[in-house]
From TrEMBL, chain A:
Residue span, CTLH domain: 49-100
UniProt organism field: Euplotes crassus
Name the record gives this protein: CTLH domain-containing protein
Ranges of the WD repeats in the UniProt entry: 256-297, 497-520, 521-553
PANTHER family cross-referenced by the UniProt entry: WD REPEAT PROTEIN 26-RELATED, WD REPEAT-CONTAINING PROTEIN 26
Pfam name, any one: WD40
From TrEMBL, chain B:
Domain of life where this protein originates: Eukaryota
Originating organism: Euplotes crassus
Domain Yippee, residue spans: 11-108
Descriptive protein name: Protein yippee-like
InterPro entries listed in its UniProt record: Yippee, Yippee/Mis18/Cereblon, Yippee_fam
Lineage of the species this protein comes from: Eukaryota, Sar, Alveolata, Ciliophora, Intramacronucleata
Keywords of this entry: Metal-binding, Zinc
A molecular function GO annotation: metal ion binding
Family indicated by similarity: Belongs to the yippee family.
Amino acid sequence: MESTEEFHKKYEKEICSLLFQYLQERGHSESAKTFQKESGLEIEGVALQNFKQLVTDGNFDEAIKLIPELEDDCMKAAQIKIALYEHKYLELLQKGSNCEAIEVLRTQIVPSSKLGTQNIVQQNRIVDLTSMVMDVEKTSKALFPYNSTGESARSNLFSYLENFISPIKMRSQSKRDNGQERAEERNNGAPSTDKVSTLLKISQNNLLENLLQTSLNYQISQCKCYGYDKEESQYSLLEYHECNLNPPSKTLLTTISNHKDEIWYVSLSPDVSKLTSVSQDKMINVWGLERKENKLQIDLISCIEESHTNKNCEISCIQWHPDSTKFLVACDNIKVFNALTGECIKVIDGETSSIRSAAWVKEGEEIIFTEPEKGMRCVNANNTDIFYDWTGFTFIDIASVPNVDKFAYCSENQVGIISISSREKIKLLSVKKKIRAITMSKDGQSLLVSKHASEEENKAVIELWDINNDTKLQKFVGHTQEKFILSPIFGGKFEKYVVSGSENDKVYIWDKSTGDIVETLEGHQNVVNSIAWEDKLPNYLFSCSYDQTIKIWINSTDKVQAEIEPKYLCNEEEIDSQMNDDDSDQSMIENESELESEEIESDE
Amino acid sequence: MKIIEYIEADNKYKCLSCKAHLSAVDSVVSKEFKGSTGVAYLIEDVVNTFDGTSEERELMSGVHVVCDIFCVKCYSYVGWRYLKAYREDQKYKEGKFILERALLSKETS
């Protein structure tokens, strides 16, 4: 990094121009004038002012003489010259002096149309210009890139020409003018800050604010604590934030349960007012969440029974509608439930009786779902088919996010992307074998792919893929996944973290950019299979497990309490005794099978 | 949710009770085996099953170390697999699976 002195010398003119633009845009015209006077700036270069005057007066020939002073680049100078000649031609035609106009075309435009061997003006254009004689008004609109009719034609021409004059040339041009002045100043031991002489024209609006915003975003993205325990309002423009702190660890706030069997999924509604938990006991609980100062209030809103007929079918997926009032549950068919009342609003049947994955697309107007035995289908609110793909591809999982025009699908060996509006397959990613689940990031640019152990990797791995460039960005290891599907999620602000459950009873949190394990949360007593962490509720992480409980985790530095009816709070001892019951069931199955096998004889 | 694999072949055998894919018809090695329910097939590759306890058993072709296999989805018994064979001419069975035909449903497309 340069010292402040060097930085100031290099960018002095630009800094002053930015400040001037800021003052002007904010309406402080008096301050802007004073600033301009004190810093000795001129709003425009002298030569440019003269040029502007000549163009506005219509004195094109004189203006053309000034071009070499404005622009050094031959190509651009020639283009300015041509533009001026063409405008002169146009004005003559508009006046009605066709003969003079044609004279201009022959003697001035055509000779200047070539620079050495390069064509500045194409042959077609000369022909088009000639045809203008027949109908000036109509053709001029088509040929000139600015509005060349009416009162403001000449000032439009000037604005168009300004694009060809590079600001840096303006700076060096005036340096030449004032070069002598500066040399004298230096000899006389003048103050170290040179007097700038011309302000630069800034084409973007609010440039100062944009630059400061970019700097702040950079500081935030470098801070490891952002999204963990620091919120955006804690960063200030007045203080450059550089900390090497590690994010604080998470501790358990409370354990809640209302289920009598394994809990499979927890899912937060998009407006983070509700949490659903789905369990093997076929009950879906909807919990209401409310954050009050340093309390988190949790109420049980409704208990819904998901009654499916096929007892071998498991609830495979639960997805909230973007408006947070309803959600869909996929099992042997898709049922949409109202979150508050618990009534089943809609039932969508598939072709087979096992639906693996579903998602809302187009702001909740359509549902896309996959049936591994049949294919993939998209239906709209009236249950009519929008499209389907029954080509025999074994669709397993789909991932979509709101406001992004594509969704991802996967089979065990392949991941592909489809555009929602055009229904066409955009591309296939080069992800290889043993894919179990996919999750898309909120900006639609990257995809988390959860994979099983395969020949390449002996253990389960989660990979982060860039959708646009088809590259693997990062991989996350350490967790165990052998028998169950554990969907990973993005977590924290800017989706800085990747979180997944694991079959060794822990919650794993990785840093998305480095792939290192930030933390593992212990406390569950069985497989942790689903996590919910939304950045609208950034300090709370919800995890659920086969031990029939939902655990809520907060930062160890937060002073928060949970407010919930005591009957839903979990006692650690109770969980242990329930676990022992389950074990005895398992051993009974094994005993029966041994009896059977003694009777079997094999024959060749 | 349990991991259920899907076989990408036109003809496959599925678990009779829950229709989970078990094997492709092409990977059947021999159809001349016998189980408790009748005819059984010796198959190279089977998915969506888990093992019961392994034990030594006296079968018609000799003593082997076998373990029963069950469907991952519905836990029902579907057959067994060979872990170890003591006689040299039985070694080819090691690592392969037996599925009892009466407990399967065949899907052809």
